[in-house]
Amino acid sequence: MRILLQRVSRAEVRIRENESEPHGRVTGRIGHGYLLLVGITHTDSQAELEWMAEKILGLRLFPDDTGKLNRDLTEIDGELLVVSQFTLYGDARKGRRPSFGEAAKPEIARPLYNQFVSLLRQRGAKVSTGEFGAMMDVELVNDGPVTLWLEREAGAGPLDNPPG
Asked: N or C end: fewer C-beta atoms under 10 angstroms in the chain?
């Protein structure tokens, strides 16, 4: 599982049903928090989803009163915008057209994506989403900028450093 996490002051996702539609319908909108671009591979399981949910919610990427990154998402009453992004598994090492063979097929990725969103909500996070498999316009204001690449390979074992 791969996630590109961006700390944002605001973000939103719109779906345009057709090209003549100028703005599209908003499916998710957040204020201060994280935009999560989520890539799922064919070997991902519940273990990767749980590890990522715990990691993301435990990260201290928001400043305290002294400016030190010492607060997590819940401490600032932040929100999550979760967007499926199979292209995170694009391999562009050869040729000019990336290969997406490591990205899970939709019938595997969709239920895992939905489970991930559910896990975040079960842990108390305020979550908005894009629409799985749709062409989306994602607009964001990157705060900082603070951007992290998170990756968890299937079978990696228990949490090395549990949040906290």
From this structure: C
Instruction: Tell me how far apart the alpha carbons of residues 52 and 148 are, in angstroms, rounded to a whole number.
Output: 13
Collapsed DSSP state (helix, strand, coil) of residue 136: strand
Beta strands 79-84; 2-15: pairing state: unpaired
Average pLDDT over every residue of 22-40: 94
Q: Evaluate whether 57 touches 125 at the Cβ level (below 8 Å).
A: yes
Q: Which two tokens stand for residue 7?
A: 């700390």
Strands 79-84, 126-129: parallel, antiparallel or unpaired by DSSP? parallel
Instruction: Reply yes or no on whether 85 is catalytic.
Output: yes
87 is catalytic: yes
**Annotated catalytic residue 116:** no
| CA 57/CA 51 separation, integer angstroms | 10
Out of 62, 85, 116, 129, the active site residue is 85
